[in-house]
Design goal:
1 helix, 0% strand, rod-shaped
């Protein structure tokens, strides 16, 4: 494997990892907002 191939592969891996992190972050935010909605629902 040449150096260029290795760098391109590591870039792809970084992209996949950042995508997964972003997705999990979005899911956490959604769950957090849903919990808060339920709390505010009970407060009304």
């Amino acid at each position: 494997m040449s150096l260029r191939q290795i760098t391109s592969q590591s870039r792809q891996l970084k992209g996949v990892l950042s995508g997964l992190i972003a997705k999990s972050y979005q899911i956490k935010l959604l769950l957090f907002f849903k919990k808060n909605q339920y709390k505010s629902f009970y407060l009304i």
